[in-house]
Amino acid sequence: MLKLLRRIKNYFTASATQKFNERADPKVQLEQAIGEAQEQHRRLTEQAANVIANQKQTEMRLNRAMEDMGKANGSARQAVVMADEAGKRGDGAKAVEYTRAAESFANRLVTIEKEVESLKTLHLQSAQAADQAKQAVAQNSAALQQKLTERQKLLSQLDQAKMQEQMNKAMATLSLEVGQDVPTFDEVRDKIEARYAKALGQSELQGATVETRMLEVEQATMHSEAAARLDQIKVQLGLATGTSELGGGAEGGELGVGGATAATGAGASEPRPAATEDGAPGA
Hints:
This protein is mainly alpha-helical.
């Protein structure tokens, strides 16, 4: 029963996590990841600083121990010299005292030497740890800088993705059904094209009727009459030979103008003499 409850709990936890990740804003999550990386770098830097500080303290202790060892060695040597001089003078009491002092300095020197050896080992280890800490901080700093550089790239890609999604959504509304109350672009286009085709069909049907042909005949007749009248006007003005371009060339003949006859062609006859009152030709 407990196993089943744990499985149910894990299932709902995974499901909730998946839904959260799907709905979460990637920009916010990116900033969270960068913030966490910066916090890790800060903690790593603090730890490295502690390691380096320990190495520095060990180095200072080693230097003090080396100084103490030098002093103890010098004091022991001086005590031995003074004990020897007292013995030569026959002062046995002082010789014994100096000898005991020399032994004390010697014991202290041995203790300091052991401490120096221990500090040397500790200093070597702390120095290696400090170097590793420095290297780790440098590597993590480079990784963090790379993440900061990639953040700008990812933010730009995120903006482009959002713009592309909006464009895809806008293009989809032109071909997919938006809703029951809103017609699609394809529906409106089909409706307009059907109406336009119907109008063209009606126009073709009207153009094939008898009334249309009769109107064309009347218009042609009016065109011919207008061309003939234009020819008359040109002849009266002496601007043409009676042939009009509109009529496609009128028939040749004489058109009286004020009792006179207009001659056509290059070989026109000379004018006739005027008749007298009795009908005889004049001289």
